Predict the 3D structure of the following.
Amino acid sequence: MKSEWLGSSDLAFLGEISIVIFVAVFVGSIVWMFRPGSRERYQQRSQMPLDDHLPVNPRSASERA
């Protein structure tokens, strides 16, 4: 039904645009995750549940950046 509707209208390009947007967001998230300097932040955040002596507010860490 969807392919019939898109095929009969001038909106057939929406499928290609959605794939391009999805790939761009996916690649952007991978680049953001592996950017320089992010390893230290992820190491600190991974230890937050285990650290009872020095609790860290996650909002204060994001506000500093």
Observations:
- The mean pLDDT is 78.
- Helices lie at 2-7, 14-33, 38-47, 58-64.
